[in-house]
Amino acid sequence: MNITFKSSANADAIAYLCYEGDSLLDEAAVSVDKSSQGALTKAMKAARFEGKLGQIVEILAPSGVDAERVLIVGLGKSDKADDRSFENTGATLVKKLLVSGANSLDIVGAGSADSVARLALGARLASYRFDNYRTTLKDDAKPTLTDVAIVTSSVKEAESAWVRLSATADGTEMARDLVNEPPNTLHPESYAERLKELETLGLEVEVLDEAAMEKLGMGSLLGVGQGSVKGSRLVVMKWNGSKDKSAAPVALVGKGVTFDTGGISLKPGLNMQDMKGDMGGSAAVVGAMVSLATRKAKANVVGLVGLVENMPDGNAIRPGDVLKSAAGKTIEIQNTDAEGRLVLVDVLWYAQEKHKPRAIIDLATLTGAILVALGDEHAGVFSNNDELAGQIDAAGKAEGETIWRMPLSTTYDKQIDSEIADMRNMGGPLAGSATAAQFLARFIENETPWAHIDIAGVAWRSNKNRPMETGWASGYGPRLLDRIVADNYED
């Protein structure tokens, strides 16, 4: 989708925004209403249009107007309008017109430069499609809308506000593409190759293969992937945008299980196809690194993703096995479907050992228990540091990728203590998300500020009532992470 900003409207479709209240139409819309002999006011009256948020009236081929269609769009009460209102309005308009036959849309009446940029973001994300594998799509189902412009008197200011949001849209679309990709084409080896291509953005990308990880003692991560014919990988993406290139980076760590059968502890067959998305945490990290590099963020950030495929095989790990992590800690396997934490702990160790980060944030589709607790509305956050948890909460509210802080406590340790090893990888049926987080916490050293974000409920979900989400993969994470860096860690 081509997004621009301009000072006057002249598109196939023109949308006029208005607030709920007595005087619905602004000066530009009043002029159009006069030219069309009152077609707008007649249509608004017939539709009982009051300017409420989400209300739309569409007039096709109005006489006296060059545009093929005119839309009147409600923003709700002016004192209630916020970033989400503008984002969802831009998204709703694009969804309505994407396959309508209209090629261009101008949106008039947005207000401030920030509001204009948020309209643009909603429009951009709502235009996303994943049609890579469609071969029989009918013409009337193919997108026609290619250009969206926001009409504003502050073009330069809007373009400036759009820079960061456009970069986060790039990252969100990248995350969606990765999560949507079929597991036969996106496996650890091909995933790593795709990430190597990000060097064109200015990222430094290093790929560690199984031999390199074996030398480092990453028996926990490698154990998960040993049942697959696809080799596991660890990919490190570095962005050094701070003035002080030697300053400690923020580390973003992602779980990248490209397909999760559950291993020997095989999952039920129902909806197992969704397990191609078990790399959603890694996709969030990759998307964030794309966003940061695209907008040349003035911060040092390192993104690390552990890429494995969890398959049942004669060589797969078994319940009862003991693995040795790179940190030297031993792990008794209770259930091979509690595999994401096994991947993460070796990547967390590597992040701390090699990069000495000032803070660590990991993201993972880790537990079904977080879905039980929070549904698909919030990600769950567990943290050893109140300041970092507050940064994540504030960024989530600012970008609409909301979180809810969950308890992290040593009282859960007894559930993951093992009789034959340092710990076991599963704590039983109760507090599953908390025991998983407590397992990860055992690998955080020197009181490094750390947060674990369980995104199992939000990495993919129905797009019902979510205008900016257009398909199965939500693309959750890049906007959140980029905002955390922008607000707290840039020069």
Automatic annotation (TrEMBL):
EC assignment: 3.4.11.1, 3.4.11.10
PROSITE patterns (UniProt xref): CYTOSOL_AP (PS00631)
Molecular function GO terms recorded: aminopeptidase activity
Name assigned to this protein: Probable cytosol aminopeptidase
Signal peptide range: none
Required cofactor names: Mn(2+)
Catalytic activity: Release of an N-terminal amino acid, preferentially leucine, but not glutamic or aspartic acids; Release of an N-terminal amino acid, Xaa-|-Yaa-, in which Xaa is preferably Leu, but may be other amino acids including Pro although not Arg or Lys, and Yaa may be Pro. Amino acid amides and methyl esters are also readily hydrolyzed, but rates on arylamides are exceedingly low
Keyword line: Aminopeptidase, Cytoplasm, Hydrolase, Manganese, Metal-binding, Protease
Record text on cofactor binding: Binds 2 manganese ions per subunit.
Ligand binding (Mn(2+) 1): 260, 337, 339
InterPro entries: Leucine_aapep/pepB, Macro_dom-like, Peptidase_M17_C, Peptidase_M17_leu_NH2_pept, Peptidase_M17_N
Sequence positions that bind Mn(2+) 2: 255, 260, 278, 339
Coiled coil: none
Species assigned in the record: Hirschia litorea
Role noted for this protein: Presumably involved in the processing and regular turnover of intracellular proteins. Catalyzes the removal of unsubstituted N-terminal amino acids from various peptides.
Active site: 267, 341
Compartment annotation: Cytoplasm
Residue ranges of every copy of the Cytosol aminopeptidase domain listed in the record: 335-342
